[in-house]
Amino acid sequence: MKSSVLTTRSGRKFAAKIAVIGTALMLCTSPLALAQDAPPPKVSVMAAVTKPIRNSATFIGRGEAIDKVNVIARVSGFLEEVLVKDGAEVQEGDLLFKIERSTYEATLEARRADLAKAEANLQLTSLDLARKEELLARGAVPEAERDTSLANEKIAEAEVRSAKAAIQQAELDLSYTEVHAPFSGRIGRVQVSVGDVVGPNSSSLVNLVREAPTYVAFALNEKQFVSILQEAQKETSSEEEQKRLFEVFVVLPNGTEMEERGKFAFADNRIDPATGAITLRAEFANDDRLIVDGSFLTVGLEAEKAVDRIVISQAAIQRDQQGPFVLVVDDQQMVQQRYIETSDVVGTGIIVTDGLQDGEQVVVEGLLRIRPGAKVDPVLANQAGE
Prior knowledge:
The chain is an alpha+beta fold. It is built from 5 helices and 24 strands. The chain folds into 3 domains: about 90 residues, conserved putative lor/sdh protein from methanococcus maripaludis s2 fold (Beta Barrel); about 140 residues, CATH 2.40.50.100; about 90 residues, Efflux pump adaptor protein, beta barrel domain (Elongation Factor Tu (Ef-tu), domain 3), CATH 2.40.30.170. The strands form 5 sheets. Strands 1, 18, 19, 20, 23 and 24 form a 6-stranded mixed sheet that branches. The two termini are about 75 Å apart.
């Protein structure tokens, strides 16, 4: 009886061991079997395409009025009239201010009287010289008296010229009592009021700025400037034609790009040793008055001619310590890692200057599920939902 019980227990223990071993074998072999049977993961791919791209670069710029001036009174006196309002548009020659005239009118009359006196004196000295020459010819007077009369006449002539010059100055001073706009533009806030004493040494009456056309100034470092210069010289030797090889565009402070394009107007003749940059200016018609003197802007240079460049989606780019790379799916649907060199952003894409060829498929979705050397099932990105 004991023997039978031992045998049963031994059988049970053996069966339990067999079950454990079987379960372990199933657990060990199931992932391998599943891995062998699982299909390649699906990934979304996009082709690297060649597009005509106009090379461009952006810089920080600033609006600069071509003409701007602080209007200052050229003569002293009480301000009689203010004929312009804050922020008004004015044309060249418009009357802006009037200064009291009476003092300068009186001065002009005095200078005219001085001229009349000098002319009368000149007439008298000329008559005296004529008599002395007649008497000298008859030997009635010594030659010294004739010479004295001649000198007196020359002094009188000089006094006449001096009196005429004084009249011109008085007329100028009188004209300066009316302050006119030196050029067309828009004025700022009027700084004076009727009754103020103004003059050359007082503060400005108002600021005047020509808004259209206008300049936008920006700076390039030495490397950028030389590269642009070399690129322009490849195309043409004419300086005027070189200026037309690049279009200048502006992005306003609110992020809006102006439709209007500018043209090169000026490049400085030296590099600033403090900054290592050279200043350039572009001229804009500024018909809409969107570029304001002193405003900070984004200035862009865009090549006139388009150049073929390879463009891929920015979503395809990954980075490690060696730099940017993409995962490429080859003809055998195998994944390859490819390091690339990139340039400017174009919309949602980016220019690739080295590392890819036209038509190669790069992975844009499913990057975390794959690795180099793995086989995948590529689906075009615009068909990923199908």
